[in-house]
Design brief:
- With 87 residues, this protein is mainly alpha-helical.
- The protein has five helices and no strands.
- The longest helix has 27 residues.
- The radius of gyration is 26 Å and the shape is elongated.
- The protein starts with a helix and ends with a helix.
Length: 87
Protein backbone atom coordinates (compact mmCIF):
# COMPACT_ATOMS: atom_id res chain seq x y z
CA UNK A 1 0.00 0.00 0.00
CA UNK A 2 2.73 2.49 0.82
CA UNK A 3 4.25 2.14 -2.65
CA UNK A 4 1.25 3.79 -4.32
CA UNK A 5 1.38 7.11 -2.46
CA UNK A 6 4.81 8.21 -3.67
CA UNK A 7 3.88 7.39 -7.27
CA UNK A 8 0.62 9.30 -6.92
CA UNK A 9 2.53 12.30 -5.55
CA UNK A 10 5.02 12.08 -8.41
CA UNK A 11 2.22 11.92 -10.97
CA UNK A 12 0.53 15.00 -9.49
CA UNK A 13 3.86 16.84 -9.39
CA UNK A 14 4.58 15.98 -13.01
CA UNK A 15 1.10 17.13 -14.05
CA UNK A 16 1.55 20.47 -12.24
CA UNK A 17 4.98 20.92 -13.83
CA UNK A 18 3.54 20.33 -17.31
CA UNK A 19 0.82 22.91 -16.71
CA UNK A 20 3.40 25.42 -15.44
CA UNK A 21 5.66 24.89 -18.47
CA UNK A 22 2.69 25.26 -20.82
CA UNK A 23 1.66 28.57 -19.21
CA UNK A 24 5.25 29.79 -19.36
CA UNK A 25 5.44 29.02 -23.09
CA UNK A 26 2.15 30.86 -23.67
CA UNK A 27 3.45 33.89 -21.77
CA UNK A 28 6.72 33.95 -23.70
CA UNK A 29 4.85 33.67 -27.01
CA UNK A 30 2.46 36.45 -26.00
CA UNK A 31 5.28 38.79 -24.95
CA UNK A 32 7.42 38.06 -28.00
CA UNK A 33 8.95 41.30 -29.22
CA UNK A 34 7.43 43.45 -26.47
CA UNK A 35 10.08 43.17 -23.77
CA UNK A 36 13.06 45.33 -24.60
CA UNK A 37 14.97 45.12 -21.33
CA UNK A 38 16.16 47.84 -19.02
CA UNK A 39 17.52 51.04 -20.54
CA UNK A 40 21.23 51.58 -19.79
CA UNK A 41 20.92 54.86 -17.87
CA UNK A 42 24.48 55.16 -16.56
CA UNK A 43 26.16 54.56 -19.91
CA UNK A 44 23.93 57.13 -21.53
CA UNK A 45 25.28 59.68 -19.04
CA UNK A 46 28.96 58.80 -19.57
CA UNK A 47 29.77 62.13 -21.23
CA UNK A 48 28.27 64.03 -18.29
CA UNK A 49 30.24 61.89 -15.84
CA UNK A 50 33.52 62.64 -17.62
CA UNK A 51 32.70 66.37 -17.84
CA UNK A 52 31.86 66.66 -14.13
CA UNK A 53 34.97 64.69 -13.18
CA UNK A 54 37.08 67.06 -15.28
CA UNK A 55 35.48 69.95 -13.39
CA UNK A 56 36.81 68.42 -10.15
CA UNK A 57 33.56 67.08 -8.69
CA UNK A 58 33.79 64.10 -6.34
CA UNK A 59 32.55 60.68 -7.42
CA UNK A 60 29.73 60.86 -4.87
CA UNK A 61 28.66 64.34 -6.04
CA UNK A 62 28.62 63.18 -9.67
CA UNK A 63 26.48 60.16 -8.79
CA UNK A 64 24.03 62.26 -6.77
CA UNK A 65 23.72 64.94 -9.45
CA UNK A 66 23.11 62.47 -12.28
CA UNK A 67 20.99 59.99 -10.31
CA UNK A 68 23.27 57.00 -10.88
CA UNK A 69 25.27 54.81 -8.54
CA UNK A 70 28.76 55.66 -7.34
CA UNK A 71 29.97 52.31 -8.71
CA UNK A 72 28.69 53.34 -12.15
CA UNK A 73 30.71 56.57 -11.92
CA UNK A 74 33.85 54.62 -11.05
CA UNK A 75 33.16 52.13 -13.88
CA UNK A 76 32.72 54.90 -16.48
CA UNK A 77 35.85 56.74 -15.36
CA UNK A 78 37.89 53.53 -15.29
CA UNK A 79 36.77 52.70 -18.82
CA UNK A 80 37.68 56.23 -19.94
CA UNK A 81 41.11 55.95 -18.36
CA UNK A 82 41.69 52.58 -20.03
CA UNK A 83 40.73 53.98 -23.43
CA UNK A 84 42.92 57.05 -23.06
CA UNK A 85 45.92 54.97 -21.98
CA UNK A 86 45.59 52.76 -25.08
CA UNK A 87 45.78 55.72 -27.44
Amino acid sequence: MTGRWPSLGAAIGQFEREIMVERQREGVAKAKGKYKGRAPTARAKADDVRRLAAEGKTREAIAAKLGIGVASVYRILAASAALSSEI
